[in-house]
From TrEMBL:
PANTHER family: AIG2-LIKE PROTEIN D, GAMMA-GLUTAMYLCYCLOTRANSFERASE-RELATED
Record organism: Aspergillus luchuensis (strain CBS 106.47)
Keyword Transferase: yes
Pfam assignment, any one: GGACT
Origin organism lineage: Eukaryota, Fungi, Dikarya, Ascomycota, Pezizomycotina
UniProt record similarity statement: Belongs to the gamma-glutamylcyclotransferase family.
Keyword RNA-binding applies: no
Annotated Gamma-glutamylcyclotransferase AIG2-like domain residues: 163-262
Alphabetized UniProt keyword annotations: Transferase
Name of the protein: Putative gamma-glutamylcyclotransferase
Amino acid sequence: MNLLAKLEILAVTVNNEDNGIILETASNSQYYNHTSHPLTTLHPKDKNSTFLVKLEGPLSTPSQVQVLSKSLTIPILREGVGETSTANFCLISGAMKLNILSALAGSTFSATFVRINLSPKDLSANSIAPCLGSEIDPILPQNRATDADEVFLPKQGEYPVWYFFYGNLAMPETLIERLGLDESPTYQKAVVKGGILRTWGRGKYKALVDGDASARVEGWVYEVGSEEDEEMLRYYETDCYEVARCDICMVDVGEVIKGLVFRFVGDVD
């Protein structure tokens, strides 16, 4: 799926508090200008965020984005072709966004930023991290690679890969809608080790967080077949969650497998 299609289909969260933010929503695909003053300090929620900046005006090329953002390297280019339009973007960090806003202060040009509201996935090749469970310390020798041949599973780019679901993703209609499935998905009953269920958003959302070694959460396991499908699920869960390794017990067969889960990273109720 191309970039513009993702922006149209997914309810991408956009930072609409800054000057020069033009918001394109999934419901109407229109742009809306916001005219408050540009930021001079990095907003806390932008610190670890990634953004797309549209290539136009004084930001028409990746090289121009590099200069205004004070980046040491040329930003990654993302090309998108939608049904009715085309556009090019660069991937930038929150700090780069701040530098662009500062450079454009006083200008009549309004830059377009879109927050990439995506669950981070950074599975270490040298340790078990990140892994569900409060008693699992990836720094300890038993949780780190002792030689070049040792492999921690699942690997970063391994597909298909098993995911443990415990909330809305455990409902077939959610996967059918998000992944564009032609038939109902196949789940298997499962239990994940080392986690406990809490809530956030005043009880509106479920949050799986680290628990002790005896903690268990019941749910379902689903085999995600491709990186594209996984990315759609990461957009759905947003950056309020991160992808973590976990041990999953398949209830019907009694087998324990290495899989992944969306672990909540914010403040619980």
